[in-house]
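hey can u run this one w/ iron/sulfur cluster bound, need the structure tokens asap thx
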Amino acid sequence: MKQIVVISGKGGTGKTILTGAFAALAENKVMADCDVDAADLHLLLSPEIEQRHQFKSGFTAKIDKKLCKECGRCVAACRFNAISEDFVVDPISCEGCAFCKFICPAEAVIMQENIAGEWYISRTRFGSLVHAKLGIAEENSGKLVALVRQKAKELAQKEDADWVIIDGAPGIGCPVIASLSGIDCALVVTEPTLSGLHDADRVIKVARHFSVPVALVVNKFDLNTQMSEEIESYCHKNNIELIGKISFDEDVVKALVEGKTIIEYPSKGAKEQIIQIWEKLYQRMR
Ligand code: SF4
Ligand code: SF4
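ok here u go:
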């Protein structure tokens, strides 16, 4: 089983469009949406949720008023000022350090596990999808990404799948690092702008730091051919495979509006270029 992740130095470069296209092209695969902060692969794949699970992460203190002796020790001790003078914990301010529980003489403090989001196993027209939703203002998206990756891998093993195709998290933070572990190829998508190259360079450095093989795609390359040439020479200089270039094509947006991948849309141009990219990836990873 091979795992491919599609990533980008920032959001909005066409990462999900490419992942959706690969979902349509690859046979015998499981898909995973690791962009848990702004998941949108489901817009293309229209999943039907079959399993729904809670994602628990971190703890919040709660004071049992029946046991509390109102000694005030916890109020004085909490360095996050999360406990009010009438001994109520503010869950937004509480960092879950459990110091108040440790010092409470009445054992009145309970540490409750937070429900920080949900994760799902869904059926789509292309096969199984593991995806997730982080609760509003919740942190720990890296932990949720790691969970989605683990569940997708387990499902792929159970279904004897040949591929796990992953829509990675954007940027270079904790979620993208969690997207990269144990990956056979990270496909970096960029656009032909200076900031696009800068963002791609940063995420490539992160991938290489973790010894993940990298290939690069320039999306909408014809909007700035000079910059696309600069990206080509950057790849050449840094020994990065430029696996394909995709032209700007309005059909990509038209397909998206209809909830289809570009592969399912009667089109040429970008669609054919994406098919070629997939064939190259397939050959490279067989
Ligand atoms: S330390 Fe315990 S007993 Fe004292 S005020 Fe806090 S919760 Fe109540
Ligand atoms: S768990 Fe830590 S942060 Fe939360 S109320 Fe207790 S001492 Fe404060």
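The chain has a mean pLDDT of 92. anyway lmk if its weird
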